[in-house]
Amino acid sequence: MDSQTKSELYHMYQSYKRELWKYTGESYESQLKEWFDDLLTDHSMTFRPVRDASRNVLIGFFVVQKLNKEQEAECGCKWFISEAYILPSCRKRGFMTAIVHDFITSNKGNIGLVTIDKNTGATKFWEDTLGSIGYSKEKIPHLGNRIVSFYRFKMPVLAATR
To answer: What's the pTM?
Structure first.
């Protein structure tokens, strides 16, 4: 990844985290750079910049983790969507839906993700997007944290046999 894209993504990552902190009332500003660098260097993570092709501008990112066998056995998911963000001005135009559909067509398996409970828009997006592809949602108990919910989206049976 070139340094210009990395810099743009870092600033976008800051905006994303600040938006999430509105829901939690917490700030981890001192850890942002470390978290971002970890996302880029963790070999289990795929960090995908999202661009608006018509304007050739960066508008978001999609980060997914391929779980190892132990993690997969523990949560029943092959993939975990770690981060997904589209600039507020570019939302509801189908960008993230297209990214998710593209990811799912080439990566089979159950998908896990965590949403902040107060972020009802994000929860609705994932339910609608994955539900439209036939994935069923299960809420998994997430001990010790009353701010977030963990979900497992189970792959449709027909997709698993293809």
So the answer is: 0.87
What's the CATH number of domain 44-160, 3.20.20.10, 3.40.630.30, 3.40.50.11710, 3.40.50.720?
3.40.630.30
Residues 6 or more apart whose CB falls under 8 angstroms from that of 64 comprise 45, 46, 48, 79, 80, 81, 82, 103, 107
Q: Could you tell me if 120 and 81 are in contact, meaning their C-beta atoms sit under 8 angstroms apart?
A: no
Indicate whether 160 pLDDT > 60: no
d(CA 112, CA 82): 9
Place of tokens 């092709």: 53
Q: Pairing relation of β-strands 79-86 and 111-116? A: parallel
d(CA 54, CA 126): 25
Domain edges within the chain: 44-160
Statement: residue 77 has pLDDT above 80: yes
Structure confidence by residue, pLDDT tens digits, 91-123: 999 999 999 999 998 999 999 999 988 999 999
Q: Would you say 28 and 17 are in contact if contact means Cβ atoms under 8 Å apart?
A: yes
